[in-house]
Each structure stands twice: as C-alpha cells, then as structure tokens.
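STRUCTURE:
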C-alpha cells in the first residue's frame, strides 16, 4: 500500500467528521446539564447544613448569655415584640450583613414563593412566612454568606425561614432554596422534627409522617430530608417517584434515586 493510499485509508470525510461532532454535541447536551444540576444540589446541601449548624450554635450561645428561651418571656399577643427579642438575641451570634427588621419589603426575603409543583403564592401560615410585613411577626436579616433569614415568633412559637440564594435570587422555591426550621425546647429542629424523623409540626406537638408524597409535591418540611440524607434527590423525582427508575419511590427507607 503506497503512502497516498494509507492517507486515504485513515482520512475522515467532512460528512463523517460532522456526524461525529454532532454525536459528541448530543451526548454533551444530555450529560452536562445533569452534572451542573447535581453540582448545584450538592452546594445547596452543604450550605443548608452550614446554616443549620450556625443557627444551632446561635441558639446555644444566646441561651448561655440570656438564659433558657423558656425564660425569655415570650407569649406576648404582639408577635412583633417576641420576634424582635428572639432575632436580636440570635443576631448577636450570627454573622449579619444586613438588617431589615420588621419592615415589609423584599430586601431580605422574597415576598412570594413557589412550591415544587410550580404554584406561586404568598404563603403566610405559621411556619413559612415571606417578608409580608409586621402583621406576620417576621424579623428579617441577610447573613454574611448571602442567606436570607426570617425569624417569626408568636405565642411562644418560633419559626425560621431561610433563603439560601438570598432575596429575589435563584428559584425562590420551597425545597430548592427555601427551607424552614423551628426552635423548641429541644433546640433547632429541621422542619419540625428532632432526631426521630418528625416532619410535620402540629398544634399539639410533633407528628411523625411516614408518607412524604405531599412534602415532595409542595417542597414543605424538607430541610430534615436534606440534612439527614445529604441529598436533594426528590428534585430528581415526581412526587417521590424517581424519574430514572419509576419503580423506586423515595421514603425514609429509600433515601436516594441512585
């Protein structure tokens, strides 16, 4: 075989080259978004765990200075007073970059949220409360890492809303970048649970929830899942059913779509 024949034997035509490049492009288009999403989820998990740790530390240190929270004299019918007291005492031990206080604006927390089903609404029930103003007893901060924090206290109950991306940035979606915590005599609880996998707060205490279908649908009460399981795999599922394996349903037993 002469040199010219060898060159022709190993050469690619323009059409063949374009086909190969097209295949590479399709594979990249399918894999890169998933890689980016997985990386973003891991960053959110790490940040939420750090925020949780910082809040827990602030609770402990504030009680060391001001005494047990049960002795803070909360329970005022004016929740603004309770929210301000709790926020200022916790704020002494948090790295705060901006204080919005009780002012009704979106400078520290988004004023509207979405759930994981895409529904948009202003959620004002006790545990999740955007920056909707004084009537909802929410004292607001931006922390040094950019996290928005809302502290709500009324009738002796304390709820914290955290926005990992900060106000009016990111998804502003429950279960993606917005999560809630509660403070009770047991410390900071991830979405209403202690270390016994309790997810739903109730009027008369805490209730163990075995079926998480509604949580995966709305995005509420999922801080516990993220902290406990070190993932946000419910975002890779539809109402708990894994997209890459529909026979696998997420639960406290099956905690990953892998």
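SEQUENCE:
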């Amino acid at each position: 075989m002469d040199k010219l024949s060898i060159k022709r034997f190993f050469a690619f035509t323009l059409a063949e080259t374009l086909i190969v490049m097209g295949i590479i492009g399709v594979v990249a288009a399918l894999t890169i978004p998933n890689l980016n999403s997985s990386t973003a989820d891991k960053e959110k998990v790490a940040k939420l765990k750090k925020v949780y740790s910082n809040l827990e530390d602030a609770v402990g240190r504030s009680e060391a200075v001001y005494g047990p929270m049960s002795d803070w004299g909360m329970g005022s019918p004016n929740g603004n007073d309770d929210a301000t007291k709790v926020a200022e005492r916790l704020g002494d031990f948090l790295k705060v970059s901006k204080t919005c206080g009780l002012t009704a604006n979106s400078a520290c927390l988004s004023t509207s949220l979405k759930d994981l089903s895409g529904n948009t609404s202003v959620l004002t029930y006790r545990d999740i409360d955007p920056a909707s103003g004084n009537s909802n007893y929410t004292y607001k901060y931006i922390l040094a890492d950019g996290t928005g924090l809302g502290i709500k206290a009324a009738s002796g109950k304390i709820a914290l809303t955290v926005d990992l991306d900060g106000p009016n940035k990111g998804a502003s979606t429950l279960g993606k970048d917005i999560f809630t915590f509660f403070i009770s005599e047991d410390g900071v609880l991830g979405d209403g649970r202690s270390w016994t996998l309790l997810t739903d707060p109730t009027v008369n205490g805490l209730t163990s929830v075995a079926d998480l279908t509604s949580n995966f649908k709305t995005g509420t009460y999922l801080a516990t899942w993220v902290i406990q399981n070190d993932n946000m795999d419910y975002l890779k599922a539809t109402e708990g059913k894994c997209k890459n394996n529909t026979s696998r349903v997420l639960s406290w037993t099956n905690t990953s779509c892998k």
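REMARK: The chain has one domain: 18-231.
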